[in-house]
Amino acid sequence: MNCPTDSKPSLLQRLLPFAPVRFGLLYVILSYLYLAGYFYRQEFAKGAWEGLWATILSGIAMLGMYGLVVHFCERRQVTELALKPAPRELGLGLLMGFGLYTLCMVVLMLTGNYRIQGVHDWHVLISGLSIAVATGVFEELLFRAGVFRLAEEWFGTWWALAVSSVVFGFIHMDNEAANLQGVLSISIWAGALLVGCYLLTRRMWLGIGLHAAWNYTQGSVYSGIVSGNAPPNGFFKSTLQGPDWLTGGSFGVEGSAVPFVLCGSVAIWIIVAAKRRGHILPPPWKRKG
Fold first, then answer.
1. 3-state SS assignment for residue 8
2. Residue 10, φ and ψ in degrees, nearest 5
3. pLDDT (tens digit, 9 = 90+) per residue, 75-87?
4. Average pLDDT of span 125-129
5. DSSP 121
6. What percent of the chain has pLDDT over 90?
7. What local confidence, expressed as pLDDT, does residue 231 receive?
8. What is the spatial distance between Cα 218 and Cα 201, in angstroms, rounded to a whole number?
9. What is the pLDDT of residues 197-227, one digit of tens each?
10. How buried is residue 149: exposed, middle or buried, by Cβ count under 10 Å (0-12/13-18/19+)?
11. Exposed e or buried b for every residue in 74-112, given b needs 16+ CB within 10 A?
12. Cα-flanking dihedrals φ and ψ of residue 29, to 5°?
């Protein structure tokens, strides 16, 4: 005879598939690993290269722990972190981030608002890599693989795009010189662009590359204010002057009309391409089966 077994799942097993619980786990784990890398760079790293290696290890740990949480809680392959397309998509994202920000600066140069007056020591290009890489990995895993993807399960792609963009934009309100113009601006164009990168491939690499390269190019190359944080000393000694709507004011170029138009147009193009690939998910009440 077969002995009866108790197949009733435990409370933990019932809670783990719940989207807010999964997001809570991701938030705690990713934040801890991100901050661990930050504090190591601040307190123990001996030079920029050691800080960069600490950041790379922290980034690998964040990617690995994300994969473990998803695999354990969702019982599936973590296709959004598939390794085979990673080099190509990450490289394309890096080129896009560098190219889009440089294009914005070219526009501001042509209008006479941005001027390069000289250069700093090239070593600033190394020291700036750490924070850009760490932020690119952390924020993409948290906001796109976390907020957007989990909201998409509940509400479908379009509502999740709106929710994740607002959350992503307004989380920057705590930055030192943040303003409403800048927060609204990145909520719209940056939120759409980075979600678009995920939708196009249904993987994280394109968005991670774009996000990291954008921040790096903005702060470490062109000496631009990054999302209302303190002005950095990047490679180029430069000045940015003009009306806030064109320069972004205290928030930096991300709050300007220039990326709003240029990057917003690219975001629309990418999302349309994702729609043509059939990557738009309807809300649950409209799904078949």
1. coil
2. -70, 170
3. 899 999 999 999 9
4. 92
5. -
6. 81
7. 80
8. 25
9. 999 999 999 999 999 999 999 999 999 999 9
10. buried
11. eeeebebbeeeebeebbebbbebbbebbeebbebbeeee
12. -70, -50
pTM exceeds 0.90, yes or no: yes
Distance CA 280, CA 230 (A): 38
Residue 199 CB-density burial (10 A; 0-12 exposed, 13-18 middle, 19+ buried)? buried
CA distances from 244 to 158, 207, 236, 251, 252 (A): 30, 27, 21, 9, 9
Q: What is the DSSP string of 227-266?
A: TTSPPP--SEEEEE-S-HHHH-GGG-GGGSHHHHHHHHHH
Written as six digits, the tokens of 8 are 């009733």
End-to-end C-alpha distance for the chain, whole angstroms:
38
What's the whole-number average pLDDT of the chain?
A: 93
> At 288, is the pLDDT very low, low, confident or very high (cuts 50, 70, 90)?
confident
At residue 7 the predicted structure's pLDDT band, cuts being 50, 70 and 90, is: low
Angle (nearest 5°) at CA 228 between 250 and 222:
80
Residue 19 Cα to chain centre, angstroms: 20
Q: What is the dihedral of CA 271, 273, 274, 276, to 10 degrees?
A: 130
**Rounded distance between C-alpha atoms, residue 99 and residue 105, angstroms:** 10
Residue 174 has which token pair?
């705590």
- Cβ–Cβ under 8 Å, residues 150 and 19: yes
pLDDT of residue 61: 97
**Contact yes or no for 205/86 (Cβ under 8 A):** yes
How far apart CA 278 and CA 272 sit, in angstroms, is: 10
Residue 13: which pLDDT band, with cuts at 50, 70 and 90?
low
Which pLDDT score, from 0 to 100, does residue 183 have?
Answer: 95
* φ/ψ (deg, to 5) at 239: -130, 145
